[in-house]
Design a protein that fits this description.
Radius of gyration: 32 Å
Strand order of the largest sheet: 4-5-8-9
Structural class: alpha/beta
Helix content: 40-55%
CATH superfamily of one domain: HUPs
CATH class of one domain: Alpha Beta
Distance between the termini: 83 Å
Number of helices: 18
Shape: elongated
Number of strands: 13
CATH architecture of one domain: 3-Layer(aba) Sandwich
Strand content: 5-15%
Length: 454
């Protein structure tokens, strides 16, 4: 294939969300799939709205997603080139300085307008095929506010050509801009790039994803413990698919599979629940060592207000399989450790009424006798046993008591669970015994029996 160059050209006027960065993901994957270059151009000419925090966030996000940049530009560096070509168009009488009647005192008295030939303009879009528009309705449109202030339509045409951009990949809301830009290209004798207009990214209420309506920057998801490979995987599927049943693709697999012909026409829905599901898949692919390192690391001050608690490493290691099963993000994992799994690290004070919550108050002997029988079985366990082994050891006694009418499963297993956790919500008692270890489990059961005897 001939030279293939794409660009991501964000305006740093606010933190960008998944819909914005989807352009970067598609542009990067296409460039690498076709052996080309990926350019980032910061469109910073709107000095009144320019936000350095937003620009820094753009590069942090690209780095986090592992989208290396081949070339990098700032639009403000091209002012002299823009002025040169504006002067050329005016000299060629293709553009002119227009005396305007300001509606307010703050408005411009003069602008530069393009002499619109009023012709039909057609172009081939990779996603939508041939698109034709009669440009006569556009009138003589503005291409600059002054010789040093080109508007978007003019500046992007010049920058794309000078930077060698061959494929303009952007949202379908830019289709209406394309015909103006083609007229400018022709007036300057520039080639027309290949256009790829992607479907819009919508929120779950099927309205355009927007920061004004709560769309979050991608670094929010980083801060709550979502993996970059999950975000990249999920965003790549917003308006594209690999043509088979695969849902989970690594960066390398995405590059190999990313064919522009598979970009879809229909709008894509950004759904946090689905993103978290994809993230849970990638979390589970981590080795226990890698998973442990993520959980143990000092949590960032993300939107969920991650915990700064420290945990006993040996117990935390034992809890990794449980966290892998339950947590969708590492932020959720940290919340679990501070919440329903806090019992693994600290014994809570027990309440007699809660010990009997699954047993009528006039039969506390059933709970006490059940715990005493279960205690003997726990005492006979080895030092390191799996939840399955604990269950196989304890359940015969529970089943026997149920068969003899000495209380159902809840009458024995609930007091055991509460004795071990001190919480109304916790893992099952077999998992608790396995993680707490024999000695700690014995100590907690004994305390519960003492309360029932009191």
């Amino acid at each position: 294939m001939a030279r293939f160059v794409t660009r991501f050209a964000p305006s740093p006027t606010g933190l960008l969300h998944a819909g914005n960065h989807r352009t970067a993901v598609f542009a990067y994957l296409a460039a690498k799939h076709y052996g080309g270059e990926f350019i980032v151009r910061i469109e910073d000419t709107d000095t009144a709205r320019y936000n350095p925090e937003s620009e820094a966030n753009i590069f942090k996000t690209l780095q986090w997603l592992d989208l290396p940049i081949d070339r990098q530009y700032r639009q403000s560096e091209h002012r002299s080139r823009h002025r040169e070509l504006l002067e050329k168009l005016i000299s060629d009488d293709v553009a002119y300085i227009s005396k305007e009647t300001p509606a307010t005192p703050e408005e411009r008295v003069e602008v530069i307008r393009f002499r619109n030939p009023g012709i039909s303009v057609s172009f081939e879009d990779v996603v939508r095929g041939t698109i034709t528009v009669d440009t006569s309705d556009l009138g003589d449109f503005i291409i600059a506010r002054s010789l040093d202030e080109p508007v978007f339509h003019f500046a992007v045409v010049v920058d794309d050509v000078d930077e060698g951009v061959t494929h303009v990949i952007r949202g379908e809301d830019h289709i209406s801009n394309t015909h103006r830009q083609i007229l400018i290209q022709r007036a300057l004798g520039f080639p027309t790039p290949t256009y790829v207009h992607m479907p819009l990214v919508l929120s779950t209420d099927r309205k355009k994803l927007s920061k004004r309506r709560g769309a979050k920057p991608l670094t929010y998801y980083r801060d709550i413990g979502v993996l970059p490979e999950a975000v990249l995987n999920y965003i790549a599927f917003l308006g594209w698919n690999p043509g088979d049943n695969r849902e989970y693709l690594s960066r390398e697999e995405l590059i190999e599979a990313f064919d522009l012909s598979r970009v879809q026409k229909g709008s894509a829905i950004f759904d946090e629940v689905k993103l978290f599901s994809v993230n849970q898949y990638w979390m589970r692919t981590l080795s226990d060592d890698a998973f442990f390192a993520h959980v143990e690391a000092e949590p960032p001050s993300g939107a969920l207000g991650g915990s700064a608690s420290t945990f006993d490493s040996e117990t935390l290691w034992k809890a990794v399989p449980l966290l892998k099963e339950r947590a969708r993000t590492f932020g959720e994992a940290r919340e679990m450790l501070d919440g329903e799994l806090s019992c693994l690290f600290n014994a809570s004070a027990l309440d007699r009424e809660k010990l009997l919550a699954k047993e009528p108050a006039d039969r506390p002997e059933t709970a006490k006798n059940g715990l005493q029988g279960l205690l003997k079985l726990v005492e006979g366990l080895g030092e390191a046993v799996s939840p399955v082994a604990v269950k196989e050891t304890l359940m015969p006694l529970v089943d026997e008591a149920e068969a003899r009418g000495k209380g159902g499963r809840g009458a024995l297993l609930w007091p055991l669970r509460y004795a071990l956790s001190g919480q109304e919500r916790s893992p099952d008692p077999f998992t608790l015994v396995s993680i707490l270890g024999k000695n700690e489990a014995i100590s907690r059961i004994q305390k519960a029996i003492a309360i029932l005897e009191g």
